[in-house]
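The pair is quoted verbatim as follows:
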Amino acid sequence: MTEPSFKISSADIGYLPQALTYAPAMTVRAYLADPDEGALPDYQIARVLAGLGLDGVPPETPVEILSGGQKTRLGLAR
C-alpha cells in the first residue's frame, strides 16, 4: 500500500455544526459580530453576505426566520 501524496494538518480541517446556536431574536448583524471587536462595519457585512450568496438578506433580519440553507451558509461566516 502506498502513502498518500498529501498531508492533512489540523489547520486544513474545519467544523460546521448542523444546527446554529443563536439567541432567539439575534439578527444577522449580531451573529456576524466578533466577540472581541464588536459589530462589523456595514461594508464588511455586505461583503461577507455577498460571498455567501446572501446579499439579498438585510443585516437586521432575525436569524430565526432564515431558511435552513441560509443558516448553514451564515454559519460558514463564523
